[in-house]
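Retry 2 of 3 after timeout on previous attempt. Resubmitting structure tokens to design endpoint.
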């Protein structure tokens, strides 16, 4: 494919502050610069990732400061409901670049006429293809790997790796960020920090910065404590010298004693304590100022750090928590053929397969073998917590209604879990419809409250930010019960299902076959 020659622009944020009307600042006095190549944009939900893309693309204007960079820019938003602008131009171009992109991303010409019937993954590939065909000097991608399987992700990665302009990439996929990004912009508490390398290198650097900040704080505390102790001693010496220099208490006719004290004042013999004390006061004031600075730096380095969410659960007394006999499951006119399946006690099982192979259908069939949920806890089936791939408005409303029905002590347990998964529990109370991410975190956090023996999770990382995903990994690794889940996140799979079983769905001409490894 013929490569476009990109100008060597730089994207520059200079002391940028921004807030939406009537809300807290998203950014405060942010400055950084980015050159050509892909830069990951990383942060918790609400940290301003999409806002940063909009500022970079001049869709939004900062309240103060400046954003400078190329005028030729394009944003691929996260939603795919609407076909991208210029889609017809792309499919009808038949030039070298469009033909190459259609081949690399495995697009079909007829997709132009059936956008509404395309899967989310197919729509995302078309959206990215149009953007790359336009070849803007600045390209921003917001979660390009959402709802796409591993094979499609590889296609997207291959395509965007050839882009030579200034690329901004918002993603919670660590493998993707590590593969394509030359640097990452970490957003936290209204600030932006650029670190070299992908997300793994950036997190390691952030860890080193945190350790260095804590050590510097400890050193500042020790110096300040030492100076405070020395100041106390010097102050006592100064008081003692002052008493020796004072004539108070001397008899008026005790001329010899009065002469000695006058001589001490004249020679300054007993004044050194006061001079040293004044010097120490100055050093102590400087030490306190340094301590304040180091405390602020350490607080910034650790702010937002996840403290982990406890999901202790319980180990089932039964050998098998569920068993599904061998058979066939219908998906429309297609068939999923399965051997006998079971999950026991502390098993870790991941269900893998390409999009459309029947993973969600099989997960739902397994859920149907479990006890019926109670009306007040629709996501709890006996001692099993079931998290579907997506939650509609009615299901999210039921999550909020369940929270409202809990005693205060139980609600505090769930709120604590939601907070430690990176969301503000107060936001759950602001609307009868929690956001998809907040509702999913609430369901996951409920496992501790209901003493769950098993978690059945269909794409649990959907709608979660990267810090929350890392927390969830650790929580599931420590969970006492069994875990059955699906995920396209390779690193999440490797961490949670380490040493566990893999159920792999392989497509066939009329459906899929499940193999247990």
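Retry 2 succeeded. Sequence:
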């Amino acid at each position: 494919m013929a490569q476009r020659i990109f100008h060597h622009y730089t994207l520059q944020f200079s002391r940028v502050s921004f807030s939406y009307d009537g809300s807290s600042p998203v950014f405060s006095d942010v400055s950084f610069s980015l050159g050509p190549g892909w830069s990951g944009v990383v942060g918790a939900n609400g940290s301003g990732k999409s806002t940063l893309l909009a500022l970079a693309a001049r869709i939004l204007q900062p309240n103060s400061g400046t954003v400078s960079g190329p005028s030729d820019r394009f944003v691929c938003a996260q939603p795919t409901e609407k076909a991208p602008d210029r889609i017809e131009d792309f499919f009808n171009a038949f030039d070298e670049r469009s033909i190459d992109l259609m081949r690399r991303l495995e697009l079909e010409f007829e997709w132009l006429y059936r956008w509404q019937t395309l899967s989310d993954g197919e729509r995302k590939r078309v959206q990215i293809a149009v953007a790359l065909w336009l070849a803007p000097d600045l390209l921003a991608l917001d979660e390009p790997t959402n709802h796409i399987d591993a094979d499609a992700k590889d296609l997207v990665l291959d395509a965007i790796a050839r882009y030579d302009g200034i690329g901004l990439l918002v993603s919670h996929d660590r493998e993707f960020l590590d593969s394509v990004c030359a640097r990452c912009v970490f957003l936290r508490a209204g600030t932006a920090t650029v670190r070299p390398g992908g997300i793994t290198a950036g997190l390691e650097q952030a860890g080193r910065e945190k350790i260095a900040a804590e050590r510097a704080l400890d050193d500042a505390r020790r110096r300040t404590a030492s100076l405070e102790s020395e100041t106390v001693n010097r102050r006592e010496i100064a008081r003692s010298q002052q008493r020796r220099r004072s004539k108070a208490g001397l008899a008026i006719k005790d001329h010899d004693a009065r002469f000695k004290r006058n001589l001490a004042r004249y020679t300054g013999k007993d004044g050194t304590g006061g001079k040293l004390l004044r010097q120490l006061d100055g050093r102590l004031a400087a030490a306190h100022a340094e301590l304040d600075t180091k405390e602020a730096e350490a607080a910034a380095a650790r702010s937002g750090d996840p403290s982990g969410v406890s999901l202790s659960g319980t180990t089932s007394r039964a050998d098998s928590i569920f068993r599904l006999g061998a058979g066939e499951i219908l998906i429309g006119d297609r068939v999923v053929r399965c051997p006998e399946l079971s999950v026991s006690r502390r098993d870790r099982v991941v269900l893998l397969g390409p999009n459309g192979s029947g993973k969600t259908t099989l997960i739902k069939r397994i859920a149907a073998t479990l006890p019926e949920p109670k009306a007040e806890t629709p996501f709890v089936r006996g001692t099993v917590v079931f998290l579907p791939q997506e939650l509609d408005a009615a299901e999210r409303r039921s999550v909020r209604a369940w929270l409202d029905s809990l005693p205060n002590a139980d609600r505090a347990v769930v709120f604590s879990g939601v907070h430690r998964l990176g969301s503000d529990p107060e936001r759950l109370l602001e609307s009868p419809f929690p956001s998809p991410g907040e509702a999913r975190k609430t369901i996951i956090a409920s496992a501790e409250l209901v003493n769950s023996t098993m978690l059945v999770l269909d794409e649990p990382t959907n709608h979660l930010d990267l810090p929350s995903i890392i927390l969830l990994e650790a929580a599931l690794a420590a969970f006492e019960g069994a875990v059955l889940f699906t995920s396209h996140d390779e690193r999440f799979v490797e961490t949670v299902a380490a040493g566990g079983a893999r159920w792999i769905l392989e497509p066939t001409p009329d459906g899929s076959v499940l193999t247990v490894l």
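Attempt log closed. The mean pLDDT is 85.
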